[in-house]
């Protein structure tokens, strides 16, 4: 079992970059903003880090992030100079988290003056030269000039990094947390990428017309390709650009030509008329965005150079006059040229797009360079990515491509999903729903989403999700489950199967819940619940039985029939925001040192229970035990040890603890608002243990109250305080923020850890 280091900068699903463990804001540091700079939308992970599809090929330095320049603007003030900017130099791949310290004046007076809770950040990656520190309006950054630098024209890498740019709205998480905001900035390369896969026939027959003695003969000569000497280059690429990627604003263009490039030696397999063929893969070419008119003499194209060998032969069997007019030929080698045109209706290259060509070479080209034979192939045009794109044959001027069909939003209002299309598109088949944990059913929000334009298409070929979450926990309608979107983007003039894409999106609120049906296997100190158990004791025989008592196990098969405490689900609570005015905070509620209660459970080393002085702390991600772990009344010591030795559904012993006062209050807020089923149901004389020797009851007036049992001697596992005798139970929680969601065999009798 791998243990994950706690980071306060954990967001809703512990989003972080691969460097977050070393660079995250710690509890004791000043407040700050963590900017996750990434090259593509992420796949969530519950562990301390993120995982996702790499947005380019590492072998060609397409993902390298050498420098990051960031620029902050107050809401609506991108037409003024940035109020906060700097450069960091991570020099790593794919993603990086920049931690920006924010003082009180910057927080509450400049970036987020009350009641404003949003601002903007622009991120410029790999900009050559010094950090642009003056003229930092957003338009100034977008107008910065760029020039392609080619380093190796033969094969392999020809650029050491790519300039990228992105702008993102920053939403405030909390003014009092250490992590006040955690924007994810998706940056896009300004350049474009072009690749080619070439299938070359093993041989071809070239008919040659010959007139001899007034008679025309056709000589069918066989040619074989010399593939190991095949090469290719790009002509009429554009070497200048601006950061916005606007090709019109870049004119006049500076054109350049690649020197000849070899093929990689790698093979790709494609089907031609249902048969698989091996294609030779080219190294990639790069150019900046440009536009051109039809028949423009500066229209870009690829030139393929392929030598062929003519096989020696004769026409003995095809010429009846063989005896008097022999026609034979010997073996020769010649170089032929092919001009590979882009789609006949294409008029430009777009930033961060990948243009890929599948080419079938089955004929001889021209043996004169300037008279190259024009050939076309099958084309893909997709947002730049490392995975094979969805094929879109655009020779016939119809295509639709969306690089990623599943997306996740974490406490963000908007999401832009780029698409590439030849025809006007529209959104159909929209469905939006949200799960209700109490009823176990979905609430349908499709009509609200339709009337509120939650899903639209903008003028820049983006599918835009725009929906404001309700993160106000004091309201009756606050969100605790993700909104689940499904919809189709399609060509308006076609219902065909080829010209649509089905897309799903999950939009998570700041605080959200996950429901898990337990498999029912629970253990305390190795004693399972296959049958009802007798009292379980710890190993410290020097204590009295009351202090050693860790309760019993309710038989698994009878749990759902035992009163109101019969919920067979576990719930994971993800917390990134607390109500305004809350006295609680998000952090690590465990003791900083191992507890002496270990002496009673020798199977555990270095166990850390809930600390006595962390009753106002809520863990960022924690899981609550199901009713399979229900207890009888017990002492505080017994409850602590029971949680230390508790295991359920494969979540091991040694990782559970008593909840804090703030966590119980938080869960009661959720159940009182009818967001989750009741997990804690205290009575006037019976309640639940929290860390710090506190227990919660519900008074005769219906109010929640925590009673301090410090210094009170238990009376036969009950506590008498002020003349009232209380029975106290335990419901344990699992520190998922720290341990992740890995499980052991759920039927193991003991999954505890040793350090």
Task: Describe the overall structure.
With 755 residues, the chain is mostly beta strands. It folds into four domains: 7-189, Immunoglobulin-like (Sandwich), CATH 2.60.40; 193-383, no CATH class; 402-510, Sandwich (Immunoglobulin-like), CATH 2.60.40; 519-739, no CATH class. The protein is built from nine helices and 56 strands. The strands form 15 sheets. Strands 13, 14, 15, 16, 20, 21, 22, 24, 27, 29, 30 and 31 form a twelve-stranded mixed sheet that branches. Strands 4-3-7-9-12 form a five-stranded antiparallel sheet, with no helix packed on it. Strands 33-41-40-36-37 form a five-stranded mixed sheet. A hairpin with a 3-residue loop joins β51 (686-690) and β52 (694-698). The longest helix has 12 residues, at 661-672.
């Amino acid at each position: 079992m791998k243990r994950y280091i706690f980071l306060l900068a954990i967001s809703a699903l512990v989003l972080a970059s691969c460097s977050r463990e070393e660079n995250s804001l710690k509890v004791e540091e000043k407040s700050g903003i963590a900017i996750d700079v990434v090259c593509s939308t992420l796949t969530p992970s519950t562990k301390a880090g993120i995982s996702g599809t790499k947005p380019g090929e590492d072998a060609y330095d397409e993902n390298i992030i050498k420098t990051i320049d960031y620029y902050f603007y107050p809401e609506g003030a991108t037409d003024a100079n940035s109020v906060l900017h700097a450069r960091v130099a991570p020099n790593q791949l794919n993603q990086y988290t920049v931690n920006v310290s924010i003082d009180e004046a910057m927080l509450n007076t400049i970036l987020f003056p009350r009641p404003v809770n949003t601002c903007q950040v622009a991120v410029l990656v790999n900009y050559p030269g010094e950090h642009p520190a003056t003229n930092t309006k957003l338009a100034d950054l977008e107008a910065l000039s760029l020039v392609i630098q080619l380093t190796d024209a033969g094969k392999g890498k020809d650029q050491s990094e790519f300039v990228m740019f992105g702008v993102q709205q920053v939403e405030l998480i909390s003014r009092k947390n250490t992590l006040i905001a955690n924007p994810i900035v998706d940056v896009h390369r300004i350049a474009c990428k072009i690749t080619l896969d070439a299938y070359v026939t093993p041989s071809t027959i070239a008919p040659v017309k010959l007139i001899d003695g007034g008679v025309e003969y056709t000589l069918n000569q066989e040619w074989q390709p010399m593939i190991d000497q095949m090469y290719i280059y790009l002509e009429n690429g554009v070497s200048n650009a601006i950061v916005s990627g606007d090709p019109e604003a870049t004119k006049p263009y500076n054109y350049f030509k690649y020197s000849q490039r070899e093929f990689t030696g790698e093979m790709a397999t494609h089907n031609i008329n249902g048969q698989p063929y091996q294609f030779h893969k080219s190294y990639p070419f790069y150019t900046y965005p440009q536009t051109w008119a039809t028949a423009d003499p500066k229209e870009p194209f690829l030139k393929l150079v392929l030598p062929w060998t003519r096989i020696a032969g004769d026409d003995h069997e095809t010429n009846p006059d063989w005896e008097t007019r022999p026609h034979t030929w010997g073996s020769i080698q010649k170089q032929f040229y092919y001009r590979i045109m882009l789609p006949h209706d294409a008029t430009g290259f777009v930033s961060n797009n990948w243009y890929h060509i599948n080419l079938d070479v089955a004929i001889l080209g021209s043996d004169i360079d300037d008279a190259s034979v024009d050939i076309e192939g099958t084309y893909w045009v997709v947002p730049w990515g490392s995975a094979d794109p969805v094929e879109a044959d655009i020779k016939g001027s119809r295509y639709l491509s969306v690089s990623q069909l599943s997306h996740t939003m974490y406490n963000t209002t908007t999401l832009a999903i780029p698409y590439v299309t030849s025809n006007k598109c529209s959104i159909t088949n929209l469905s939006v729903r949200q799960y209700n944990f109490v009823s176990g059913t979905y609430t349908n929000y499709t009509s609200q989403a339709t009337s509120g334009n939650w899903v639209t298409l903008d003028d820049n070929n983006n599918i835009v999700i725009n929906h404001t979450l309700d993160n106000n926990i004091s309201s009756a309608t606050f969100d605790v489950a993700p909104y689940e979107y499904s919809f189709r983007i399609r060509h308006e003039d076609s219902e065909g199967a080829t010209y649509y894409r089905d897309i799903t999106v999950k939009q998570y609120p700041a605080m959200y819940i996950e429901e898990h049906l337990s498999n029912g296997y629970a253990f305390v100190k190795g004693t399972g619940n296959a049958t009802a158990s007798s009292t379980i004791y710890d190993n410290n025989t020097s204590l009295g039985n009351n202090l050693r008592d860790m309760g019993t196990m309710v038989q698994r098969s009878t749990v759902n029939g035992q009163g109101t405490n019969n919920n067979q689900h576990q719930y994971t609570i993800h917390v990134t925001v607390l109500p305004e005015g809350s006295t609680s905070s998000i952090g690590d509620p465990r003791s900083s040192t191992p507890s002496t209660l270990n002496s009673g459970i020798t199977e555990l080393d270095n166990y850390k229970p809930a600390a006595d002085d962390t009753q106002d702390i809520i863990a960022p991600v924690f899981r609550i035990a199901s009713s399979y772990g229900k207890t009888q009344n017990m002492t505080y010591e017994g409850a602590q040890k029971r949680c230390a030795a508790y295991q359920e559904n494969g979540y091991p012993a040694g990782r559970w603890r008593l909840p804090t006062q703030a966590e119980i209050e938080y869960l009661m807020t959720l159940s009182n608002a009818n967001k989750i089923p009741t997990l804690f149901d205290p009575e006037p004389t019976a309640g639940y243990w929290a860390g710090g020797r506190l227990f919660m009851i519900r008074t005769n007036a219906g109010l929640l109250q925590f009673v301090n049992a410090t210094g009170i001697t238990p009376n036969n596992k009950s506590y008498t305080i002020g003349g009232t005798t209380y029975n106290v139970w335990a419901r344990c929680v699992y520190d998922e923020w720290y341990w992740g969601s890995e499980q052991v065999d759920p039927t193991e009798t003991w999954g505890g850890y040793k350090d």
